[in-house]
Structure formats: structure tokens, C-alpha cells
């Protein structure tokens, strides 16, 4: 008979997941959809088409930070049995909870705008639908996805989202294989640098599209809810250390694989734009980039790209609505049905589409708003996971604390620069 203890030890020594841990994967793949939403498409295509490979380093650094951040979020939920919004809600007074909820809802609204607009653009590119009708269809389909979650539970919902993630990856990676990428210039793009104030604005937009505040709030709840079924005690003071360590190992693989895919897709989009769209007029919009992709790489690649964009909008807007419900439940201690929340949060995106605002510019600006919201989610996350009173045996070790606070400093510094540039240009 196999010795599971020996097999586990050997797997850890070889850097391989333990036998059976794959069954615990899934929550991070739901959170990872936030990292390949339509806002990423707008920010990455704009960066690549306008500045070539200059900002590759932003995506690499952002994804490295995202791996650490999402791991800490899931770890918080697994160890404490509470989501990040619930922990914040328990530590803040009524006014503090309301203020925190307002800023988190602004971030959630910006997320929803990006995701609905992206899906609407995809339907326009594929079928010529007006943007408002496309946005309405995206909203209705996302309601159906959330209704499926309410009826079937989290694991079937995870499988649906993973399916969308596979379509997104195929849609955005396909063009890369027929593009003439300069790998030497791409390697040079790993050296951190800027080229004027607009590149700082773009970097902040790319950061906001990669390190997502609502994904930080959500992942703690996703991991907690999923692993209640795997024997994690409801009482955080009754956590079985060995069992929790096993779940955390599964979580590391979950986060690593999911964000490897998401990060690869983001970098592929920038490389595609740098290789095939640079210097082409009109590529500062998604519609223009789609037309340029069709002209440079053929109609088949353009259709695949639009399908990936549609899958991105549908999946990410569903996950965004889910995150909004987690935020509201934790900070306001009120819960409303996911489908009802989806219906309400759809309205701002439809208003923007009906008003005729340039959709690509709205997408990029939404990512800047997300970037400004990151510290409000990230700083409490690092503080809580570094607090022995909260985490017990699972407090962040010193190296993790240093890495996490370094990420906080970098993100806050970029946001301060963003505000200064915006005020100067205004």
C-alpha cells in the first residue's frame, strides 16, 4: 500500500504537488479572471501599440506582486474562517465601515464598467450590435451565470469560470504565435524605466488592471467557502495545523498556476501590440486594435481575439458582482441576492455606454480608479496576515512581510505619482 506521509514528503522535496491536492484547486482560478478582464486588454494594447516593449517590466512586476497578494488573501480566509471585508468590518466603527464600503463600492463600480464595456465591444466587433444592447446582453448572461452559482454551488461555478479562462487564454494568445515578436527588445523591456508622464499613467493603469482590489477582497471568501467542505473547522480557534498546512500548500499551487496563465495572457497582449500594432493609426482604441489585428494577422485571428474579449467580459463581470456581494456582506453586514446586485450594478455601465463616452478611454480610466483602490485592500491584508493574534501559527514569516510591504510601497508610490501627474495635467 502507498505511504501517504512518505509520498507527501517526497512531493515537497521535489517541488511537486501532493497526490490529491489537485482536487483542492479552483478558487484562485476564479480570482484570476479579474486579472484578464477587458481593462487589461485596453491598458496592455495601448501600452504595446504606443510604446512597444517599454512597459513589459510593469506586467512582470505586477504579476509577481499579484501571486504574493492573492496567496495572502486566500491564506487569511483559510486560517481565520473570515473574509477580509468581514475582518475589517469587525474592527471598524459604523462610520469607518460605511466609509470603507463607499471606496470599495467605487472600485467595484469601476470594475463593472470595464467588464461590461469590454463584453459590449466584443459583441459589436463580432455581430455589429449597438454598444448599449451589447452591454445589456452581457449583463443578462452574467445574471444567468450568477444564478447558476446560487443553484449549483461554488465548485460547479468554478468549473464554468475555468472554462471561460481557457477561452480567454486561447483568444489572446493565438495572435502571438503569428506575430513577429522581437524577443531581444522584449527582454530589454524587463529593465524598469519610463518615458514621460503618459507612460506613468499607463503603468498605473496596467497595475490597476493586474493587481485588482476586488480580487483581494474576494479570494479570502472563495478559499474559505470552498474548503469548509474539505474539513476546515468553522471555529478559527479549532484549526487543525497539519490539515491547514495541507490546504495552504494546495493554495500555493492554485495561485501559482492560475496567475501564471493570467500573467502570460497579459504579457502576450502587450507583445502582440508591440510586434503587430506599433505605428499603426487608430490602435489607441480596442476597435482600432481589432481592425489592425485583422489587417496584419488575418480575419481568423481577429475573430478569435474578439471571442476572447467576449469571454473576458462575461466571466469577469460575473466575478466582479460576486466580489461586490462579499464586500457588502462583510462591511455592511447585509446580503442581497447575487442576481439582484448584478441588476443594480449594471446600470452605471449602461449609462456610460448610452452617453457615447469613448469605450477604450473609459476602460483605461477605470483601471486608474482600481489602482487608487489597491492600498485600501492591500495594507489591511498585509497587516492582518502579519498579526500573530489573528493568524496564530500561520503569521507571515519575515521574508514574506518584507516582500509584501515592499509591494505596498511600490504601489503607493506609483499612485502618488499618478495623482501628481493628473493634477499637473489638469
The total count of helices amounts to 18
**Beta strand %:** under 5%
- Helix fraction, binned, reads over 70%
Number of β-strand runs: 0
Q: What can be said about the biggest beta sheet?
A: none
The assigned CATH architecture is Up-down Bundle
Instruction: Please compute the radius of gyration using only Cα atoms.
Output: 21 Å
Mean pLDDT: 84
Low-confidence stretches: 1-14
Which overall shape is indicated by the principal axes computed on the Cα atoms? globular
Strand and helix order? HHHHHHHHHHHHHHHHHH
Q: What is the straight-line distance between the termini?
A: 71 Å
Q: What's the CATH H-level homologous superfamily?
A: Amino acid/polyamine transporter I
CATH topology: Amino acid/polyamine transporter I
Which structural class should the secondary elements be placed in?
mainly alpha
Q: What is the count of distinct domains?
A: 1
Instruction: Name the CATH class.
Output: Mainly Alpha
Amino acid at each position: 500500500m502507498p505511504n501517504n506521509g512518505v509520498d507527501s514528503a517526497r512531493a515537497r522535496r521535489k517541488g511537486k504537488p501532493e497526490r490529491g491536492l489537485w482536487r483542492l484547486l479552483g478558487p484562485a482560478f476564479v480570482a484570476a479572471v479579474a486579472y484578464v478582464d477587458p481593462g487589461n486588454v485596453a491598458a496592455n494594447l495601448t501600452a504595446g501599440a504606443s510604446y512597444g516593449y517599454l512597459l513589459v517590466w510593469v506586467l512582470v512586476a505586477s504579476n509577481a506582486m499579484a501571486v504574493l497578494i492573492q496567496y495572502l488573501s486566500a491564506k487569511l480566509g483559510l486560517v481565520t474562517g473570515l473574509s477580509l471585508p468581514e475582518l475589517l468590518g469587525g474592527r471598524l466603527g459604523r462610520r469607518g465601515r460605511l466609509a470603507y464600503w463607499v471606496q470599495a463600492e467605487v472600485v467595484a463600480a469601476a470594475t463593472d464598467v470595464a467588464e461590461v464595456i469590454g463584453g459590449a465591444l466584443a459583441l459589436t466587433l463580432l455581430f455589429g450590435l449597438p454598444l448599449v444592447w451589447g452591454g445589456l446582453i452581457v449583463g443578462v448572461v452574467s445574471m444567468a451565470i450568477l444564478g447558476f452559482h446560487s443553484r449549483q454551488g461554488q465548485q460547479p461555478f468554478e468549473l464554468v469560470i475555468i472554462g471561460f479562462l481557457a477561452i480567454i487564454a486561447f483568444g489572446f494568445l493565438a495572435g502571438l504565435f503569428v506575430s513577429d515578436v522581437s524577443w531581444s527588445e522584449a527582454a530589454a523591456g524587463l529593465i524598469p524605466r519610463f518615458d514621460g508622464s503618459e507612460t506613468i499613467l499607463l503603468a498605473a493603469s496596467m497595475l490597476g488592471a493586474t493587481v485588482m482590489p476586488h480580487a483581494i477582497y474576494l479570494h479570502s471568501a472563495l478559499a474559505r467557502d470552498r474548503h469548509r467542505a474539505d474539513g476546515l473547522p468553522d471555529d478559527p480557534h479549532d484549526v487543525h495545523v497539519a490539515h491547514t498546512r495541507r490546504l495552504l500548500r494546495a493554495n500555493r499551487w492554485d495561485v501559482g498556476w492560475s496567475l501564471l496563465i493570467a500573467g502570460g495572457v497579459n504579457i502576450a497582449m502587450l507583445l502582440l501590440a508591440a510586434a503587430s500594432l506599433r505605428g499603426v493609426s487608430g490602435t489607441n482604441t480596442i476597435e482600432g486594435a481589432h481592425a489592425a489585428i485583422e489587417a496584419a494577422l488575418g480575419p481568423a485571428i481577429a475573430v478569435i481575439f474578439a471571442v476572447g474579449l467576449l469571454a473576458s467580459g462575461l466571466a469577469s463581470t460575473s466575478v466582479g458582482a460576486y466580489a461586490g456581494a462579499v464586500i457588502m456582506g462583510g462591511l455592511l453586514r447585509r446580503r442581497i441576492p447575487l442576481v439582484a446586485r448584478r441588476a443594480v450594478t449594471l446600470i452605471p455601465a449602461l449609462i456610460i455606454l448610452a452617453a457615447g463616452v469613448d469605450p477604450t478611454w473609459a476602460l483605461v480610466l477605470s483601471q486608474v480608479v482600481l489602482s487608487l483602490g489597491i492600498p485600501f485592500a492591500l495594507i489591511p491584508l498585509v497587516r492582518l496576515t502579519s498579526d500573530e493574534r489573528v493568524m496564530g501559527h500561520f503569521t507571515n514569516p519575515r521574508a514574506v512581510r518584507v516582500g509584501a510591504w515592499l509591494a505596498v510601497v511600490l504601489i503607493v508610490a506609483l499612485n502618488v505619482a499618478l495623482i501628481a501627474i493628473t493634477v499637473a495635467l489638469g
